Amino acid sequence: MRRRPSFVLWLLLACSLPAPARAWTLEVDPAASSVGFTFGATLHTVEGTLGIESGTLTLDPVSREASGSVVMDMKTASTDNERRDRKMHEKILQSARYPKAVFTLERVEGAFNPAGSSDLLMHGTLDFHGAKHQMLIPARVTVEGDRLTGRCRVTIPYVEWGLADPSFFLLRVAKTVDVAVEVVGRLQP
Fold first, then answer.
1. Is 46:31 a contact under the CB 8 Å cutoff?
2. Nearest CA to 71 among 161, 181, 178?
3. Is 104 exposed, middle or buried (0-12, 13-18, 19+ CB in 10 A)?
4. 89-148 tens-digit pLDDT
């Protein structure tokens, strides 16, 4: 007579198997997140900031598929120089016509660690100034408890992307802007 494994044995086997991976969702905290930018100009470097309006990102750690977006408020761009900011909003960013920039996440390369640090490569699209641009962004992500902080740096070739060159007469301005993003939020499985 064959004996059947007991219920306890099946239970022990089931408990020893790894839990199926779950998707993780990040709810961005706009007040704790920031975007900084710098670009060179004749005899000086210009530094500025702009605000993040909202964001929700989801990552499936098995398939590496991702979704969601981060919305930046272009109307908040500031270099702390009223005259320069007015020109930047009217002639370069045209923020009345293009008030938002949206990064949409499509997939992620790299192993996401739900505790500690991870180096990830984010694939997505930046909808900026009326056009969509494919982006490949390296990011360092740190998770402490349910708080995630993600940091990345990108260079935006804004003149190549069709924005006006603010250079005139003797003032020469770089054709790219360096952008540093820090996204902070609550991570939920």
1. no
2. 181
3. middle
4. 999 999 999 999 999 999 999 999 999 999 999 999 999 999 999 999 999 999 999 999
DSSP single-letter state for residue 171:
B
**Neighbouring C-beta atoms of residue 16, cutoff 10 Å:** 7
Instruction: Let me know how long the chain is.
Output: 189
Q: How much of the chain, in percent, has pLDDT values that exceed 70?
A: 89
Count of alpha carbons within 13 Å of 90, Cβ hemisphere only? 6
The phi and psi torsions of 16 (rounded to 5 degrees) equal -85, -15
Q: Which DSSP string do the residues of 17-47 spell out, in sequence order?
A: SPPPP--EEEEE-TTT-EEEEEEEETTEEEE
What is the four-CA torsion angle of 80, 139, 64, 53, rounded to 10 degrees? -10
Give phi and psi for 87, each to the nearest 5.
Answer: -65, -40
Its pTM stands at: 0.86
Residue 4, burial from CB neighbour count under 10 angstroms (0-12, 13-18, 19+): exposed
Write down the number of H helices and E strands in the chain.
2, 9
